[in-house]
Design brief:
By secondary structure, this protein is an all-alpha fold. Helix content is 77%, strand content 0%.
Length: 608
C-alpha cells in the first residue's frame, strides 16, 4: 500500500480545495449520475479496506458538505498514513471551528511532505500572530512548488518589509498562474518605474514594460483591477480601442473605476449616451468621479437640479470635487452665498482649486484680507492659477518683490501670463537676456502680448537693413518679424501696425495695407493713420481722409494735422482751422507747433 500519498489532495487551499482532475462539460444530471457511480465504487473499495478510496471518499463527502460522513473516512485514512487525508481532516476540523486540532493534523501531513498542508499550517500560524512559525511552514510549502504557499509567503514577507524576498516569491506564484500574485507583482514594478528618473531611463522603461506584461497576465486570468490598470496604460499610450476592451472587461466584472474610465473614453469618442450609461453604473457603485461626470453632463444640458443631485452623490462618495462643482454650479446661477458655502467645504478638505475659487469670490466681494490666505493655501498646494493671482494681488498693492516671486513660481509651472509679467519686470530692471527667456516662454504659450514684446526686444538688437534696390530679391524675414506676425495674427493691434510698416519698408504695399486695415478696423488709431498715408501715396486721398478722420477722432494728432492740410488745400479754411486746433491740443510737440502755424495762417486768410 502506498501510504502518505497525494492522490486524494482535494483541498489544496487549506480551506476548500480545487479538484485534482479536469472537469468535463457535461449536463448536471450526467454529472450527478457519474458522481453517484463513483461514490458506489469508492464505498465498495472502502469496504475492502482500500486506504486511497477512504481518502478520496472522505474528500468527496467533504466537498458535498457531509462533514459527519467525511470525518470517519478521513480519520480512518489518516490513521493508515494517508497525508492527503490528514490535510483534508484538518480542513474539516477548521471548518467546524476546531482550529488547534486542525493544525495538529496539518502538521502531521506537512511533516509527511504535503505542500498543501504546510500552506494551511502557515496560514494558521499567521492568523495566530506567530510569524516565525508561519514563515517556516509557508517556506516549506513554497519550496515544494505550491503556488498558494508561494503567494502567502510573499504576502508575509511584504508585510514584514522584506521587499526582495516578497518579490521573489510573488514572482514564483505569478509564474505558476496565480492572478492576484501577477497583479501585485505588476503594482510593485509600477511603483519601481515611478521611482526612476525620466522616461528615457532604462531601468524605468524595463520596469514599466514588465509591469504591463504582468497586468496583462492578471487581466487575462480575470483579475478586474489588473484589467483596469492595463486599460489605463494603453489609454496613456493612445491605444484607445484595446484600452476600451479591457475597461469593458473590468467594468463587467464590477470594477466601478473601469466603468467610469470607459465612460470617459466613450465621451471623447462622441458617444455621450453610452458614456452616461457606464457613468451611471459606476456612480451607483459608489464612484465619486463618475457621479461628478454625470453632474457635469446634466449641467451642460441645463438640467441643474439633476446635476446638483449627482454632485451631492459625489460628495457622499467622499469626492471633494462634488462640493467644488456644486460651488461652480451655484456661482454660474448667481447664487453667491451657496457658492461660497460649497467652495469652503471643498477648500477645508484640501481642494486647491476650490481654495482659489473661494479667494476669487471673496476678492470680488471686496474682502481682500479674507481672500489672500485662501490664495496662499491653494498656491502652496500647487495651484498655478492661485500663484498667479497672488502675484496680481501683491502687484495691485505696489509690492513688486512678492508679486514677482509669485509670478516666477507660476511661470515655472508653465503659466503663460505669469511668464509675461516676469518678462516685463525683467525688462524694466534692464535684464534683457532674462526678459527674453521669459517672453519666449510666454509667447510660445500663446500670449500675443509676449510675442509682440519679444519682437520689440529682438528688433532693437538687429542692425538696420541695407537699402533695398528695385529688382533685387527681398530679404528673408528676420526672427523679430516672425514674432510680430505671430502676435499680429492673434489680433495684437500694435503688432499689426508694425507688420504693416515692415511690409511697406519692403515695398509690399498690398500686404502693408492689409495689416494697417486690420489694425484700424480693430480700433488702432496708428493703423488708421498709416493706412491713410498709404492710400494717399497711392492716389486715394478721399479714402485716406476717411481713415485720418477716424484716427483724429481717436486722439491722433498727426492725423488731425493731415486733415487740416487737406482742408487748407481744398480751400475749406474753417474746417481746416478746426482740425489744426485739434492737432495743437493732441500733440506731440512738433505736430502742435506745425499745427499752430497752420492755424494762424488760416485765421489770417479768413480775416483778410
Amino acid at each position: 500500500m502506498d501510504v502518505m500519498g497525494d492522490m486524494a489532495n482535494l483541498f489544496g487551499t487549506g480551506r476548500f480545495a480545487q479538484p485534482s482532475g479536469q472537469e468535463e462539460a457535461t449536463d448536471e444530471a450526467q454529472e450527478a449520475a457519474d458522481e453517484a457511480a463513483e461514490e458506489v465504487r469508492l464505498r465498495l473499495a472502502v469496504d475492502c479496506g482500500d486506504v486511497e478510496a477512504m481518502s478520496v471518499l472522505g474528500a468527496l463527502l467533504l466537498r458535498r458538505g457531509d462533514f459527519d460522513g467525511a470525518e470517519s473516512h478521513l480519520r480512518a485514512a489518516t490513521a493508515a498514513g494517508d497525508r492527503a487525508a490528514a490535510n483534508n481532516l484538518g480542513v474539516l476540523l477548521h471548518q467546524r471551528g476546531y482550529a488547534d486540532e486542525a493544525a495538529g493534523w496539518w502538521r502531521v501531513a506537512a511533516v509527511a511532505g504535503s505542500a498543501a498542508a504546510a500552506h494551511a499550517l502557515g496560514r494558521h500560524f499567521r492568523e495566530r500572530g506567530d510569524e516565525p512559525a508561519a514563515e517556516y511552514w509557508l517556506c516549506q510549502s513554497a519550496e515544494q512548488g505550491h503556488v498558494l504557499g508561494a503567494y502567502a509567503l510573499a504576502d508575509l514577507l511584504e508585510h514584514r518589509g522584506d521587499d526582495a524576498g516578497a518579490e521573489r516569491w510573488m514572482r514564483a506564484a505569478a509564474e505558476r498562474g496565480h492572478r492576484e500574485a501577477a497583479y501585485r507583482l505588476a503594482r510593485t514594478l509600477d511603483r519601481r518605474a515611478g521611482r526612476h528618473g525620466g522616461g528615457d531611463d532604462k531601468a524605468h522603461a524595463a520596469a514599466a514594460d514588465e509591469a504591463e506584461q504582468w497586468y496583462r497576465q492578471a487581466a487575462a486570468r480575470g483579475h478586474r483591477r489588473g484589467a483596469l490598470h492595463l486599460g489605463t496604460i494603453l489609454e496613456k499610450r493612445g491605444e484607445l480601442k484595446e484600452a476600451g476592451r479591457w475597461y469593458l472587461t473590468s467594468a463587467k466584472d464590477g470594477e466601478a473605476r473601469a466603468a467610469c474610465a470607459l465612460g470617459f473614453l466613450l465621451r471623447d469618442a462622441g458617444d455621450t449616451e453610452s458614456a452616461a450609461v457606464w457613468w451611471l453604473r459606476a456612480a451607483q457603485d459608489g464612484d465619486g468621479n463618475a457621479a461628478n461626470a454625470l453632474g457635469a453632463l446634466h449641467a451642460e444640458r441645463g438640467e441643474t437640479q439633476t446635476a446638483e443631485r449627482w454632485y451631492r452623490a459625489a460628495m457622499d462618495a467622499g469626492d471633494d470635487n462634488g462640493a467644488y462643482n456644486l460651488g461652480l454650479l451655484c456661482a454660474e446661477q448667481g447664487r453667491t452665498t451657496q457658492a461660497e458655502q460649497w467652495y469652503r467645504r471643498a477648500a477645508y478638505a484640501g481642494h486647491r482649486e476650490a481654495s482659489n475659487a473661494l479667494a476669487i469670490l471673496l476678492l470680488r466681494a471686496g474682502d481682500e484680507t479674507g481672500a489672500e490666505p485662501w490664495f496662499s493655501k491653494a498656491a502652496e498646494a500647487g495651484s498655478v492659477d492661485a500663484a498667479f493671482n497672488l502675484g496680481i494681488l501683491h502687484a495691485g498693492r505696489g509690492e513688486e518683490r512678492p508679486a514677482l516671486r509669485w509670478y516666477e513660481r507660476a511661470a515655472a509651472a508653465g503659466h503663460t501670463e505669469a511668464a509675461l509679467q516676469v518678462g516685463m519686470a525683467r525688462l524694466r530692471a534692464g535684464d534683457e537676456r532674462e526678459a527674453e527667456r521669459f517672453l519666449r516662454c510666454a509667447a510660445g504659450g500663446g500670449s500675443a502680448e509676449a510675442a509682440y514684446r519679444l519682437a520689440t526686444v529682438l528688433d532693437a538688437r538687429r542692425p538696420p537693413p541695407p537699402a533695398h534696390e528695385l529688382g533685387e530679391p527681398a530679404q528673408e524675414k528676420s526672427e523679430c518679424e516672425e514674432w510680430y506676425e505671430r502676435a499680429a495674427s492673434q489680433g495684437h493691434r500694435r503688432a499689426q501696425v508694425r507688420v504693416g510698416m515692415l511690409a511697406a519698408a519692403r515695398g509690399d504695399v498690398v500686404e502693408a495695407a492689409r495689416w494697417y486695415r486690420e489694425a484700424a478696423e480693430a480700433g488702432s488709431r496708428n493703423g488708421a493713420f498709416n493706412l491713410g498715408l498709404l492710400l494717399a501715396r497711392e492716389g486715394s486721398e478721399p479714402e485716406a481722409v476717411v481713415w485720418w478722420r477716424r484716427a483724429a477722432d481717436a486722439g491722433h494728432g498727426r492725423a488731425a494735422l493731415r486733415l487740416a492740410l487737406v482742408c487748407a488745400r481744398r480751400g475749406e479754411l474753417a474746417e481746416g482751422q478746426r482740425w489744426a486746433d485739434l492737432a495743437v491740443s493732441l500733440g506731440p510737440e512738433e505736430v502742435g507747433e506745425r499745427a499752430a502755424r497752420l492755424r494762424d495762417a488760416l485765421r489770417q486768410e479768413l480775416s483778410a
